[in-house]
């Protein structure tokens, strides 16, 4: 009797184990930082945006379910390297430096850096005039890297874009350097803010996966190709950037 009980228990454990393993294999842990409107942002506590919909479509084509993880931008690459995430989609620029640590998919969006200023304190008029000023950036963003390279600039690093914008509104910084689409959004939502275009960099956004997971990057690329061909990508572009 005892033996039979043990056998049944072992069998059950095996079944439960393989079911949870199957479930585990179906789930993609996707990291983002939902402070980057319109790519990823919170609406009623839910992560929404262009990247979110694009990644959901990719996962659907791959037969996977997504479990979203919303963490600080600066923590995304370490979490991917520690295998706490399978994928990052976060308006992330595929820089040469980052390519040393992760595999990037094909690029899915091109942007550039812009400068936000407070119209009541218009002391900065172009990127090469940032030296000597207090400039807000977000920790680890490509904007941080570009501004930090300027001689004589006083860089103030913030954990998120919302915090940097608050500092600009309070005139604690003279300018904030940020990717074009979120910058345009902040300018639209805050009439006291002005926007200056720059040609400092061309930012190619791509989806990141682990260095040892080339197969996943290839599958994402295949899905991206399908979404391009079947019009889904264009529909999303229209939905999020149609009025620009
Ligand atoms: N494109 C910028 C970068 O990769 C900012 C990305 C983001 O804030 N989500 O650093």
Automatic annotation (TrEMBL):
<feature type="signal peptide">
    <location>
        <begin position="1"/>
        <end position="22"/>
    </location>
</feature>
<keyword id="KW-0732">Signal</keyword>
<dbReference type="InterPro" id="IPR001638">
    <property type="entry name" value="Solute-binding_3/MltF_N"/>
</dbReference>
<feature type="domain" description="Solute-binding protein family 3/N-terminal">
    <location>
        <begin position="27"/>
        <end position="244"/>
    </location>
</feature>
<protein>
    <recommendedName>
        <fullName>Solute-binding protein family 3/N-terminal domain-containing protein</fullName>
    </recommendedName>
</protein>
<dbReference type="Pfam" id="PF00497">
    <property type="entry name" value="SBP_bac_3"/>
</dbReference>
């Amino acid at each position: 009797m005892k033996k039979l009980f043990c056998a049944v228990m072992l069998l059950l454990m095996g079944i439960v184990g393989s079911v949870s393993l199957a479930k585990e294999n179906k789930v993609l842990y996707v990291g983002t930082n939902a402070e980057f409107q319109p790519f990823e942002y919170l609406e009623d506590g839910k992560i929404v945006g262009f990247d979110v919909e694009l990644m959901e479509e990719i996962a659907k084509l791959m037969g996977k379910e997504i479990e979203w993880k919303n963490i600080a931008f600066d923590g995304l690459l370490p979490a991917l390297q520690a295998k706490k995430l399978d994928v990052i989609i976060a308006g992330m620029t595929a820089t040469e430096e980052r390519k040393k640590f992760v595999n990037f998919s094909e690029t899915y969006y091109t942007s550039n850096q812009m400068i936000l200023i407070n119209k009541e304190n218009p002391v900065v008029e172009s990127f090469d005039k940032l030296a000597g000023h207090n400039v807000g950036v977000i920790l680890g963003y490509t904007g941080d890297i570009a501004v930090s390279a300027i001689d004589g600039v006083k860089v103030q690093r913030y954990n998120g874009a919302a915090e940097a914008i608050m500092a600009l509104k309070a005139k604690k910084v003279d300018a904030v350097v940020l990717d074009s689409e979120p910058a345009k959004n902040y300018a639209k939502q805050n009439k006291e803010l002005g926007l200056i275009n720059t040609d400092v960099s061309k930012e190619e956004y791509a989806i990141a996966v682990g260095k040892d997971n080339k197969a996943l990057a290839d599958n994402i690329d295949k899905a991206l190709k399908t979404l391009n061909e079947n019009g889904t990508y264009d529909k999303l572009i229209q939905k999020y950037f149609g009025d620009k």
